[in-house]
Write a structure and sequence with these properties.
3-stranded antiparallel sheet; two-stranded antiparallel sheet; 18 helices; 65% helix; globular
């Protein structure tokens, strides 16, 4: 009897301890996901710095406001129906429960999941703001942000991440008694391909910035404002990606999480390094056409592209494979930038190359390098089905996003609300749309200097519309100048600002085409 009682007490103690340990484990998991959601939300600051450093200062407030709008609109929309479409009970295509988080308890763990998925959804929306920067009407961007966070991305998340999604449900391979599922652990396609595809369609439909391409289709360099802000934004994004990928979609509430997350963090850094190395070397030694420099901006974009690509298999590939994925992602970035330039698509931040090309490569790479199913290790029927299913999902996500992006941006373009007018673009979105400058001193200088070129810009815009061969000499004579010195085909204009003589950029050649003149005038207002 004493032995029985002693044994019973031991069993009870073990059961009680196991219960307490389970509660502590769940609390630790919930705490980790909540903190991760906050860190991933801080990636919005990274995007804001990166984009503000890549646009001209006359459009800085506009690009920052779009980042803020993504967070604000995304929160309300994802609360109302985005989360329901993504993770509510439904069918293989879409969820249909938990609208406005209804049916979820006050202290339910589901709230933690909602917060994490919300910050993933707004990340997909923010990608587009950079690709369409400096010429997109603010109202049209708000419409896109609403559509992306509330419909396009949530449906894709349901396909790939929900237990009921048709991609996640997978294909049953009878010969191996195994179900092959779509693998995108942390959003190479569910987040980044969605954002990159929308960026591609949006940038193509809105058209390039004034002066980005000359009449022969050749690229005209438009300088960014400061690499300092871009670098700070890049570091914030790299830091955020650790938590972005470690938290994933909340699929790791089990023992051994710490070691898995350690692997994820290591793979992220290795892939980021691989991407930066290949892009930097390519820019320096291969890209002789564009100067062959060590480009800081290109290195930062290479880091981010490597992180985007490794997200699909961050928890299932070996570290050496992660470095390889990142290195090839750097080449995918270079290919993406060349193709967008060839297609005359203006992407100020190379968002298409980073997120669409990097994300697509990541989904393809995990099909070959997954430690359990990858073709590189198995080379059997199961691995071939795995490749086919991942490619099927990738194509489906691209088509779905491209279709809705084309409908939304195409309709707004047809209505004439997608893009601002040439006069507004030249003057800057900050002054006209928002009435405030990100840099007050420079904004005042720009405002006074722009008075000297607005009349020219208006006449050039009309000339560009009516006659590509209009003689521009009478128009340039309308400028109020202190001195005008002619040197060859260019003029230097000196304007008075606050009693100080300020030298503007060289005005366009009088023999230049109207489109080229508009571009150079737009650059001069910066």
């Amino acid at each position: 009897l004493r032995h029985y009682l002693h044994t019973s007490r031991c069993v009870c103690r073990v059961e009680v301890w196991n219960s307490i340990y389970a509660i502590m484990t769940f609390n630790e998991e919930d705490s980790f996901f909540t903190v991760a959601a906050a860190v991933v939300f801080f990636m919005q600051a990274g995007f804001a710095f990166l984009e503000a450093g890549s646009v001209r200062f006359k459009n800085t407030t506009s690009i920052l406001f779009k980042n803020v709008a993504d967070a604000i609109i995304g929160c309300v929309v994802y609360w109302a129906f985005g989360y329901a479409f993504a993770f509510g009970n439904g069918n293989g295509f879409i969820g249909s429960h938990h609208f406005f988080l209804s049916g979820i308890g006050l202290h339910s763990r589901e709230i933690v999941r909602w917060m994490l998925q919300y910050v993933y959804a707004i990340t997909a929306a923010t990608i587009v703001s950079g690709a369409m920067a400096e010429r997109t009407d603010f109202r049209s961007y708000l419409v896109y942000s609403f559509l992306s966070t509330g419909w396009v991305q949530p449906v894709v998340a349901h396909w790939g991440w929900s237990d009921q999604g048709w991609l996640y449900s997978g294909v049953y391979v009878e010969s191996h008694n195994f179900t092959v599922r779509y693998e995108d652990f942390a959003g190479s396609s569910v987040v980044h391909v969605v954002g990159g595809t929308a960026a591609l369609v949006g940038a193509a439909l809105v058209g390039p910035r004034i002066g980005r391409f000359d009449d022969d289709g050749k690229i005209v360099r438009v300088s960014s404002y400061t690499t300092t802000m871009s670098t700070l934004g890049g570091f914030i994004l790299i830091f955020g990606f650790f938590f972005f990928n470690m938290a994933s979609h909340g699929s790791l509430p089990q023992s051994g999480d710490a070691t898995v997350r350690g692997l994820i963090a290591a793979n992220c850094m290795l892939a980021s390094s691989g991407g930066a190395i290949t892009t930097s070397l390519t820019k320096r030694y291969v890209d002789r056409k564009h100067g062959g420099h060590w480009s800081l901006v290109v290195a930062i974009n290479g880091c981010i592209t490597g992180l985007v690509s490794v997200s699909a298999g961050a928890s299932t590939i070996y570290p050496y494979a992660a470095f390889f994925v990142g290195a090839i992602a750097g080449l995918a970035y270079v290919l993406g930038t060349r193709l967008t330039e060839r297609w005359s698509i203006d992407d100020p931040l190379d968002a298409i190359a980073v997120h669409l090309f990097g994300g697509a490569w990541g989904v393809i790479a995990v099909s070959f390098l997954d430690a359990e199913l990858g073709f590189f290790y198995k080379a059997n029927k199961l691995s071939l089905v795995f490749i086919a299913w991942n490619l099927c999902g990738l194509v489906a996500i691209f088509i779905w996003t491209a279709m809705w992006s084309f409908i939304a941006f195409g309709l707004m373009s047809w209505m004439g609300v997608l893009r601002v007018t040439a006069e507004i673009e030249i003057k800057g979105l900050d002054a006209v749309t928002h009435g405030e400058s990100a840099y007050a001193y420079l904004g005042e200088q720009k405002r006074k200097k722009s008075l000297a070129v607005q009349s020219v810009a208006s006449d050039l815009s009309r000339a560009h519309t009516n006659d590509n061969n209009t003689d521009l000499r009478p128009t340039t004579d309308q400028l109020t100048t202190e001195t005008a010195q002619t040197n060859g085909n260019q003029q230097n204009v000196v304007a008075e600002c606050q009693g100080t003589s300020i030298q503007t950029s060289a005005l366009p050649s009088i023999s230049s085409s109207p489109s080229t003149c508009l571009g150079q005038l737009s650059e001069s207002v910066v």
